[in-house]
Amino acid sequence: MAVQPLLDWFAQRNWKPFDFQIEVWNAYLNGESGLIHSATGTGKTYAAWLGPVAEALSGEGSPGLKVLWITPLRALAADTLMSLQLPVHELQLPWDVQMRTGDTSTSDKAKQVKDMPACLVTTPESLSIMLSREDSEPLFTNLRCVVVDEWHELMSTKRGVQTELVLARLRKLSPNTQTWGVSATLGNLEEAMNTMLGPNPKSPGRLVQGATDKQIVIDSILPPNIDRFPWAGHFGTAMIGPVVEAIEDSGTCLVFTNTRSQSEIWFRGILDARPEWQDLVALHHGSLSREVRDEVELGLKDGRLKAVVCTSSLDLGVDFSPVDRVLQLGSPKGVARLLQRAGRSGHRPGVASRVTCVPTHALEIVDIASVRNAAKEGRIESREGLVRPLDILTQHLVTIAVGPGFRSEEMFREVRDTHAYRDLGEDEWNWALNFISKGGESLKAYPEFRRVVETEGFYKVEDKDIAHRHRMSIGTIMSDVAMHVQYLKGSRLGTVEESFLARLSQGDKFLFAGKPLEFVRIKDMTAWVKPARSLVGAVPRWAGGRMALSGELSYAIRQELGRAKQGELNSPEMEKLAPLLTLQAKWSAIPDESELLIERVETEEGHHLFIYPIEGRLVHQGLAALFAYRIGRISPITFSIACNDYGFELLAPESAPLEEAIEAGMFSRENLAEDIASSLNAVELSRRQFREIARIAGLVFQGYPGMNKSARQLQSSSGLFYDVFARFEPQNMLLQQANREVLERQLEQTRMSLALERLENSSLLITHPKKPTPLAFPLLIDRLRETVTSESVSSRIQRMVVEFESEADQE
C-alpha cells in the first residue's frame, strides 16, 4: 500500500488522517488531477502535498524539480515552506524544499537555477519570470505535480489568468504533470476545478470534498441602545469598550476590519483604552513593511500577542494555532469572506471556529443576522474566471518570447488550452501578435514598440534592454502608485498611496502604522516623516476601501427584511433592531424579497427619491446613474446622487416624473450598455481603467528601482495612448477591453442586469413619508460627507439625529 508510510507517520504524531486526505493521496498516485475543497484548518495542505511525497518514498520519480507549489501571496510562502518541510524531514526523504519569491535574493535564485530543488514554493509572478529565461524549458521537463494553493483567491482575477497561462505552459513542457488546486469557501467548485485544469484535460478532474462540516460559531456584540436613525460609522469606535472586553475575555484574537484606514483607527482606539497593552496588541495590513508584518506574524505564532487588528492581509492560509477567536468589525459584506476569517480561529482539526461580528452602524445588525442564515444554508459566493483579457495575453507572449521564443501555431494551441482563452479567435490572436511585434496599427512607426522580432513565424525578443524591462514589469497587480514612508532618522514603515500624500503639506500630521507622524517632504518616491507629538491629523485612505455587499448576502438581507415585515424576528440581532424597524414600517414600509420600496420625500433641500434594491453599493452606483438618465429623458432634470449597500438617493430641485419613467421602461434591460455609457462619464472611467491595461500590456514602463514614475506620470503616459487609440484606432482591442472592464469590474453590469430583471418583476411600494426614514437616513449622511461645509460633519450629523429623534418622539 503506497500510502502506508504516510499512515505510519500520522500515527507517530498521534494524528488520524481524514478520509478526504487519503482519497487525494490515492487519486494522485493513480495519476489524477483535481480540486480539494475543505474548511480552513482541516488539513488541505497535507492532502495535496503527501501524494507526491508517497510517490517519492516508493522509489518512483526523477532528479530535478518535481513539485511546484504556487501560492497567491509571497507572504504565505515562508509559512507554507515550513509546513512542507516537516514531513520531508521526519520521513527522511532526501528532498530539498525551497522558496522563490520577490523576497528571495539574487544569489539564491541563481543557485536554484543551477541545481533545482525537488519542490519550489513560488508565486505566479516569480514563476512567469522563470519562464522568461532562455533556458527555462529544461528546468520543468521532470515536473510531476503543480499545486495551486488558495485557488479561490486567484480564480476571478488577472493573476488567476496569468496562472492559467503558466499552467498551460507547464503542461506542454511536461505532459505528465498533474495539477491539484486547494480551495475553501467557494460556491461553484466544479467550474473552479475546470477553470484551473483547462478545457482539454487528459482525464476528468476529481473534486474532493473535505471536512466541510467544521463547526463555526457566528455571534455578535450589540450596542446597548439602537439609534432609530442609523448612519455609517455612528457606532464605530463607540463599540471599542465592548471590543476591548471581548479581547480581554479571550486568549488570542484577530480583529478584522474591512479597510486599512479602519484598522489604523481601531488599533489606536484599543491602545487608548488599554495603554498597558502596548506590547500585546499589534497592527497588520498590506501597506506595512514586510519586516513589520513578519514580526507581527511571529508574535501570533508564539502566542506573545493578545490581539492583532488586521485587514484581509491575514485572511489566507497562515496557521496561527494560538488564535481562539475572531472579531469582525462592521459588515463582512460576503458569506465566504466571513467564513474565511472565522477559519483563522480554532485552526486545528476538531476545534470550533468562532467569529464575533461587531456592527458599526444600525443597519449592519441586519447584515449579521443575514450572513449567519446564509452560512447555515451553505449559500457561498461563486467566483467566475475572467474571459480573454488581452493585456495578460500580450504580457505572457512577450514573456515566452524573452525566454525560448515560440512559433505562432504552437503557441496559439497552447494559449487556447486555458479556460480564459478557450474561445480566443484568430482575429484576436493575430492582433496580439501584431501588437507585440509591430506596435499595432497606431504605433507601428515607433521602433520601441516593436518588442518581439518575427522570423518565419517564430517570435523572439532579441534586444537585451527590452528583455530586462519586461522582466521587471511582469506582474498584474495594479493600484494607485504607492510611496515608501520612512523616518528621517530611522526605519521604513511601509507604503501609502501617492494620491493621499500629494495632498499633504509640510507639517501636516497623519496616522500610519499605528503611529502619529508629521509629514516633512517627498523625495525619491519616498515620503519622509518624523514622529508627531499628537494624534490629531488625517488618516490615509486607500483605494477600494469601501467594499460592496455580495450577491448572496444581498439576497439574504432581502429575505431577512421580508421575515421582519411579517413580524418574525428570529435572532438577537433582529430583536435588538425592532424599534428601528417599527418606525420604518410606521413612516413608510419594510420591503420583502418580492417588493421594491421607493420613498418620495420633500425637504428644504428639494425632492428626494429613495430607492432600495438592496443589491450592494457597486450595483447601486450604476442603477442610480441609469435611472437618473432614463428619468431625464422624459423631463430634463439634474440629480444629486448618493449610494450605499441598501439603496440610493436621487435629489432634484423639482419633483421627478417617476411613474412616467417606470411606464417608459426605467427597469428595462434593453439598450443597457448604451444607456450606462450615456449616463456616466464612460470615457473618463475607461481612461482610468486603461492605465492598468497599458501597464500590464507593456505600453507603459513603471521605471527602474529608485527611479519609479509618479502616478501623475503614469496616468499621463497611459492617457496619451488612450487618446491616440481613441482617435486613430477606435477598434483597438485594449481600448475595447477597458470599456468591458469598466462595465463588469466597476459597475458589475451582469449583476445590474439581473437586478433589473428582478425589479421589473417586483411589486412596487411607493410611499410618501413626511420625513426621511431610518432606511433613508444613512444615504443623507453619505451625501453630507461629500459636501464641503464649514460646520464639522460630526456636529452636523448629531444635530440631524436630534431633529429626527424629536420628530419620531412626537409621533
Structural class: alpha/beta
**Unreliable residue runs:** 710-715
Q: Describe the main β-sheet briefly.
A: 7 strands, parallel
The general outline is globular
In short:
The chain has 811 residues and is an alpha/beta fold. The longest helix has 18 residues, at 617-634.
Task: Give structural notes.
By secondary structure, the protein is of the alpha/beta class. The chain contains 33 helices and 26 strands. The strands form five sheets. The protein has a seven-stranded parallel beta sheet with strand order 3-4-2-5-6-1-7, with helices on both faces. Strands 8-13-12-9-11-10 form a six-stranded parallel beta sheet, sandwiched between helices. The chain is globular and about 85 Å long. The N and C termini lie far apart (77 Å). About 1% of the residues have low confidence.
Give the arrangement of secondary structure elements:
Layout: H1 4-12, H2 19-29, E1 34-37, H3 44-57, E2 67-70, H4 74-90, E3 97-100, H5 106-114, E4 119-122, H6 124-131, H7 136-139, E5 145-148, H8 151-154, H9 158-173, E6 178-183, H10 189-197, E7 206-209, E8 216-220, H11 240-248, E9 252-256, H12 260-273, E10 281-284, H13 290-302, E11 307-310, E12 323-329, H14 335-342, E13 353-358, H15 364-376, H16 390-402, E14 406-407, H17 408-415, H18 426-438, H19 440-443, E15 453-455, E16 458-460, H20 464-473, E17 482-487, E18 492-497, H21 498-501, E19 509-512, E20 515-523, E21 526-531, H22 551-565, H23 572-576, H24 578-587, E22 595-603, E23 606-612, H25 617-634, E24 640-643, E25 648-652, H26 658-663, H27 672-679, H28 682-697, H29 711-728, H30 733-746, H31 749-760, E26 763-767, H32 777-785, H33 793-810
